[in-house]
Design a protein that fits this description.
This protein is an alpha+beta fold and 137 residues long. It has one domain (3-135): Hotdog Thioesterase (Thiol Ester Dehydrase, Chain A), CATH 3.10.129. Helices cover 26% and strands 37% of the residues. The protein has a five-stranded antiparallel beta sheet with strand order 1-3-4-5-2. The longest helix has 16 residues, at 23-38.
Length: 137
Amino acid sequence: MTFTYRAPVRYLEVDQQGVVFNMWYLAYMDEAFGEFVAHTTPWADIFALGADVQLVHSEQDWSGSLHWGDTVHVDVSLEKLGRTSFTIGFAIHSGDSSRRALTASTVYVCIAKDGSGKMEPPPILVDALRFQNAAGS
């Protein structure tokens, strides 16, 4: 089971070829990840514990495209949970998951908001990541 974030493709996201410009897919993934966590745990609660997350690596593979007027569907799932990092998987499509526009894998590191570096994710963040994987949306 996965969490799915939905949003309209806006005119400003489409290039002269009539498809969503590639940089917007990273924005869709960022928004979807934020909602994936916030669906069960407010980010303010995570920040209050002195934690935040930072993207450190992302790989994207395009197999299609989205167009103005489509609805972006971003399926989000936890792929791996490490000591200070975790990997989130994304599948982006326009509603028909068999016709994907992109699949991606992104690694985030949990960091201390005070600038002291990497830290283990607080339990409420771990629970949010695991809950979504177990419960779906």
